[in-house]
Design goal:
By secondary structure, this protein is mostly helical. Helices cover 72% and strands 3% of the residues. A two-stranded antiparallel sheet has the order 1-2.
Length: 158
């Protein structure tokens, strides 16, 4: 009789542990939806050159990322003794979270490539408009002459 109670208590703890793990993963899932939404807004801000909104969205995204890291640490602790890939209750939630993480990674990569390409383009424009002297220049007395900064004035028509 006592062994049966211990066994039932052990099973109840395992069930509660799994439910807690699934709950944490569902929170991660909901948070990933918000993160993906923020990433889309971030991409739109960069594309539209709305720098104020970009700063706000970066702060929001950082806050969401911090919350996700906390949840992930909690999930890692809870999943130490559980084979999540083989558990029928946990596996679907795990697949959904992994899919959203992969989508987030792709969004980040696309944004980074866009920014990198734009930066290279602008650097090329600035290099041809404002060529900087990179060679050391000497005066007629043999002293190093520091290059003067060139200024650029752009006319903007509104």
């Amino acid at each position: 009789m006592a062994e049966e109670k211990i066994e039932q208590t052990g099973e109840a703890e395992i069930i509660a542990h799994k439910e807690n793990l699934v709950s944490v993963m569902q929170e991660e899932n909901a948070l990933l939806d918000k993160i993906l939404e923020q990433q889309t807004l971030l991409h739109n801000c960069v594309r539209d050159k709305d720098w104020d909104a970009l700063n706000r969205n970066i702060e929001n995204l950082q806050s969401l990322s911090d919350k996700f890291v906390e949840l992930e640490e909690k999930r890692v602790r809870l999943s130490e003794n559980v084979d999540m890939a083989r558990d029928d209750e946990i596996s679907p939630v795990l697949s959904e979270v992994r899919g959203k993480l992969q989508k987030s990674k792709v969004e980040n990569k696309v944004l980074n490539e866009y920014i990198s390409t734009t930066r290279k383009f602008l650097q090329g424009v600035f290099d041809s408009v404002v060529p900087q002297r990179r060679n050391v220049l000497y005066s007629n007395k043999g002293q190093i002459v520091k290059p003067e900064l060139s200024s650029v004035v752009l006319n903007q028509m509104i």
